[in-house]
Amino acid sequence: MNNNFTPTDVRDPTNITGIGQVVTDAGGGSVGLCTGTLINPRTVIFAAHCVNTRAATAYGANSGGTGIAVGFETNTRANAAGQSDELVNWLLGGSTGPGRFQTNTAQALYNVNQVFWNPASRAAASCTSPTSCFIEADIATAVLDAPAANIPTWALLFSPLTTPTSISPATGTGYHVTIAGYGNTGNGTTGITGADFRRRVAENMLGALVSINTRNLFLFGTAGTPSRPQQLYFLDFDDPRRGQTGADPEDFNGFRDNALLREGITGPGDSGGPLILDQTFSKQVVIGVLSGGSTFFTGQPQGSYGTQSFYQPLFLYWDWIVANNPYRYVTATAGNKNWEDGTAWITELDPAYQILDANGQLVNGLPTNLGGTNSGNGSEFGELCFQSPSTSPNPATNECVDLATGVERNGVPNTATESNSPLVAGLAGADGMASVETAQAAPGYSDTVRPAPTLANGLPGATGFTPNNVDGVRATGEIGRYYDVTLRNTGAITLNTAVTVDRFSVAGATSQLNIATGASLNSLIEIRQLTGTVNNNGTFRSNGDYLLMSGLLTGSGTVRTPFLTSVLGTIAPGSLTTIGTLTVNGNVVMSSGSGLMIDVGPNGTSDRLAISANGTSTGSATLGGTVNFAPVAGYQVRAGDRYTFLTAAGGVTGTFTSTAMSAILRPMITYGANAVSVEIQAGLYRDVVTPGASVQGAYAFLLDGSRGNANLSGVYGLLDLQNAATIQSTLDSWAPRTETLRGSLGTVAADNMSRFYRDRLAGLDADNMGGTLAMIGKPIQLAALNMNSLGGDEVRSDASGVTVQEGRLPEDTSAFLAGGYLDGDSRPMASAIPAGGRDQFDGFYVAGGIEKALNENSVLGLALSYTDIDGDAAAAGQTASGTLIQGTLYGKTELGGGVELSTQVSAGAFDTKTTRNIGLVGTPFTLTGKDSSLVFTGEVTLGKDFDLGSVEFGPRAGLRASHIGFSDIKENCTGPALRIDRSSFNSVQGRAGIALSGKRGASFKPSLRADYVHEFMDAPTSFGANFVGGVGPNAIFGLTGSDSDWFEVGGGLTISTGSVDLSVGAETTIGRSDVSYQSYRGTVTFHF
Known about the structure:
Elements: E1 16-27, E2 30-40, E3 43-46, E4 68-73, H1 86-92, E5 109-117, E6 127-129, E7 132-133, E8 140-144, E9 156-157, E10 176-181, E11 185-187, E12 191-194, E13 200-205, E14 208-211, H2 212-220, E15 231-236, E16 274-277, E17 285-295, E18 308-313, H3 318-323, E19 327-332, E20 337-338, E21 345-347, E22 353-356, E23 362-364, E24 381-388, E25 397-402, E26 423-425, E27 482-487, E28 491-495, E29 498-506, E30 511-515, E31 520-529, E32 533-536, E33 539-542, E34 546-548, E35 552-555, E36 558-566, E37 570-573, E38 581-590, E39 595-600, E40 608-612, E41 621-623, E42 626-631, E43 642-648, E44 652-654, E45 657-658, E46 665-671, E47 675-682, H4 694-705, H5 713-719, H6 724-733, H7 738-762, E48 773-776, E49 794-797, E50 802-805, E51 813-826, E52 839-855, E53 858-872, E54 878-896, E55 899-920, E56 923-944, E57 946-947, E58 951-964, E59 969-970, E60 978-981, E61 985-998, E62 1004-1015, E63 1022-1027, E64 1035-1038, E65 1045-1056, E66 1060-1070, E67 1078-1086
Parallel strand pairs: 9-22, 19-27, 20-28, 27-29, 28-30, 29-31, 30-32, 31-33, 31-34, 32-35, 33-36, 34-36, 35-37, 36-38, 37-39, 38-40, 38-41, 39-42, 40-43, 41-44, 42-45, 48-51
Antiparallel strand pairs: 1-2, 1-4, 2-3, 3-8, 4-5, 5-8, 6-7, 10-13, 10-16, 11-12, 14-15, 14-24, 15-18, 16-17, 17-18, 17-26, 19-21, 22-23, 24-25, 43-47, 46-47, 48-50, 49-51, 51-52, 52-53, 53-54, 54-55, 55-56, 56-58, 57-58, 58-61, 59-60, 60-63, 61-62, 62-65, 63-64, 65-66, 66-67
């Protein structure tokens, strides 16, 4: 180091940088010391001369060879009082820590099991003596017997640096470099003074890329012997006082540049260290390995001002380095294949390998041609100088030459002799990290094109191998193979055997690893699942941690790792659809972005994440993120189900968030000291249904009130699992629309017969019974009749056609047979969703009766009728049918003064059947109900006619009452069948109007009638219901109401032609909103 700093000042303050001290057992407690650089977790690059006095097969203590190790701490001895001396422990063994020749990961000292050095380093041009060969091809690799898991690795530049366009007097080539190593320390005046096993760091400017031949020819006028044409990277040690009094006289500025603030040079023990280009690109790269240094004057101390260091350019030997690097980065090809299939794998570009592209930018890649080795046919750059005396700003001798252009300064003699040729000693060092970039080939330094890729030559694209670590064979020199496996392509790799790799990663979202039952994958460094899927039914282990950045970890196998840490990942024991237990031997940490998927089944069975100790980890669980529960196929989760889904021998801290399993079911998680359990609890349906939706609300009331009822387990089992929208639409579809329709059918059937007898009475004349037999039913095409009903019915009937046959009965008696049909529609259930449409119905009726004149002013009749009517609700799948059988007593009498009293009384039974075809999440139910209701109707009418000549005119007033005693219905079916409590229907109508008709016996008889109708009773607007087998009070469902006031208008015309009467008529309602009806009648009467 220059004299401005002490050896202590330049110690590397960073403990571990990936630059290490290479220690070789020299026997007798002595060691040989060099420096090396970690380029991947298994491989250290350093100088061949550190080991080339023995065969490469001689190294590797654990297989009987010479011991060699690499220590990566900045101080490879005891760092503080009480700490063990890792170097001594490795060399001699100790009472604590790893034993002799054993890797000590705690102190970052790694044993080496194989060494490879370039045989060309022993060529004559490389040697200064039989035991000192270091000038050319001075490259070696050492293989660690365990991966250096947490040690930074360095990128290597395999392209020659771009030749500078000019050389600056201050900064020379412009390439700033860092040097580092564990060699001897000292200052610019004293040179090397001793070593202390500490790493030091200095800076310098890259002086030149030049061969020793070229340098010597400039300095001494001769290249010297043997010829040494290989290019080397050179540095010189500049005295900051150069050009001033007191400057070191031996500093002749060998390579033009000025001293830097922390400028230094290398010394013995730095050999093999890296030359780090640290400011040219966005990241630091190693461009050379230190081989030696030069002094130029008798007695000049090594490492003093004016001395030089030289490095092996990596680009000259890149192909040798790649081939003798045992570490392979590999990936699986696309598709589903077995791990054991050699065609499933392909080697990838090592991320440490860097080249310069056509634009001089640093990229991940390899040259297209092989390295130039020591051919010497490459270009050179830099500026060689000889400036003396160094104490003068204008030295008398001042000659420099630009190596790239050959331009010299004239008048500077080259008079140095061979006796002044430089001394050479072993030396140097550095620091940084490597990253992966896009691969891109670039021209190399040789004319030889690189060969096709093979696993042996290390070029990317090789196939036909199975990733499984294999240690090398020291005695034969067979190189080991260590794999860094990354799945990044689409497809699944299935492992069926036991495999060990250095590192395993998943980087493709559509990539998957399947570890079969009985198989195992051991990733020595760590497991990095960045995305994708790992399905582990065997054993997945790592000495390092398992990082689940994202993606899915599933299976019923075992994961063994110090820490399984999920950041954004999902863990699903078993599979996403089946139950299983995933065991973790180690600690588990789940961050707030992670997920746990738990399948649950019957009898408390569920997935389980079982966390246990592994000797170094206690088996603790630190919880966060979200846990989701889902039933396995065929099982319906029910409220009250309980499961234990996580156990942790080392204790549980933290909590999960959870999501509802449905709109109803919610997990309630309980945290114990060593276990986490869940109970499935049910929320309220009332919190799920649409506000204001009365049908949904009614069913929600019933469901909330009957929770736990075994009779309804099938309903809860399916419906509880649905989302809010499905629950809402399902409950709406269950609306008991048939109840509205059933009421409409009853009122239509009863009203129709009342109308029929009202019309019959209007046509009876006590003094003209005539022994007629009337045949009523379809003498002409149907006319429409709309009846007043609870449901707002629109009814059409053909009941008015009458055929009369005389002389068949006694003169004071008449009889009739009648038949007709009904067709109409009514308002649907008011609260049902979807709204709209109308209930539709049709049917037929038959009636028969006999009438007798009591005197000339009174007549009395008795009749039986049968009505059959069927209806369809506005929503598909719901129907109702009914039959009304009733007897009717009817009659009229004249009270005097032209006042006429008409009355009718009916009693009967109305039998109904309802059918609701509904669904419950794909399960159909047919719900049927039956009812028999008593029906009573009565009507009384007063009227008076005034003679207006050809017609009679008069008022009419009446009162009509009806009662339908609807009873409860219990639907027959499982599932959501209802027990319906229905109120009776009661109606009292007041009728007032006028009538106009032709006189009896006239051949032309018009008729006209208008009535005002008022309903005094309020029709039921709701009914109560509960599930069959349900508990608690009824829920209330809505019905359709009816109008209170409206008008009815009717008219007709009868033409008599002797033995035949032809009649037509029509009726309609006016001002009625719940129902609008019209009735049309036609009658043909024959007289005999």
